[in-house]
């Protein structure tokens, strides 16, 4: 052990500011999958169609995506702490309002406001935790990474448990947890005086970034990939419930929460532990093609076996393993493909890919009603095939990615910013 390593502070010995941000990050990432287990319950309680309830993802993701184009501009003008606080206030307010709603259209509107708050908070949280942590950026990134993984995995589980009490439970639960995080951020977040100020960027910088051919190609790939991703995430609770009913089983919010907890845990584990060594050993483009091809097959299998409960559950969890690697590899590819500033490249890419995710739930419901329960999965598989074609056609623009990797810390930071 070197003298530097011996003196490095323990990961767990962090200022209160860091734990406040990490807790808030965990709860914020929980919000992505929180509503998944309660979609059927909301549909029944509010007499809404599957299409209407799946729009809870669309309104959230659409506003999050649009806001991502402007968050770096906002934080550059009002500062990190103010941006965090405004984001948290919006999440608390709109999560509580969603829980108090009397119809699905109200929830849709409040989920949009929730998405705006989430975009402001998450896009700024990494910079805040890096500035406040002891032990350097490596320590901060590990903590942020842990918060992301726990939030993605626990969100569906919490949604399922609170959803057994009422479909309103997960919304109110999130509001309470984020209110606690807000108080902690206000009371404990003190960024170092020598922390660098957020870079000022123009309001149009994210849109101008799409002129870069490599970033544009990867962003279009991400749109079609995320279409398949959110077909799986937003639509699957309904086939799961139908398959359980056909088998004579009761499959409510708790059971759905367990399934998507397994999915989220698989995604978190492979994004952290499998993706980095895979991309270092095989290269970025081979990993991207392999994961996209595997996801296409999995979505096709879901279409074929959508009525078989056990098979569908296994396929969902296996898909989580694939999605974790894919998310990490695609974001790393975005960061290596251009010489644009990281915050601009990541916010542009994140904004575009969230818009792809927003479209999927809006299409899946009407398509299932018109063409049968297998059809959304076939469409998702087709969308991922398009992503493969785009990646193939853009090969000459992306031949340089994966050849000169950054340090592990830089790769992790890029991936986490992109995942926001």
From TrEMBL:
Gene3D superfamilies: MFS general substrate transporter like domains. Its main location: membrane. GO terms for cellular component: plasma membrane. The chain crosses the membrane at residues 17-35, 55-76, 83-100, 112-134, 141-165, 171-192, 213-236, 256-275, 287-305, 311-330, 351-371, 377-395. The keyword Cell inner membrane does not apply. It is found in: Cell membrane. Signal peptide: none annotated. GO terms for molecular function: transmembrane transporter activity. Keywords: Membrane, Transmembrane, Transmembrane helix. CDD domains: MFS_YfmO_like. Pfam families: MFS_1. It is a multi-pass membrane protein. InterPro entries: MFS (IPR011701), MFS_dom (IPR020846), MFS_trans_sf (IPR036259), Tet-R_TetA/multi-R_MdtG-like (IPR001958), YfmO-like (IPR053200). Residues 17-399 form the Major facilitator superfamily (MFS) profile domain. PANTHER family: MULTIDRUG EFFLUX PROTEIN YFMO (PTHR43683:SF1). This is MFS transporter. It comes from Glutamicibacter uratoxydans. The lineage of its organism: Bacteria, Bacillati, Actinomycetota, Actinomycetes, Micrococcales.
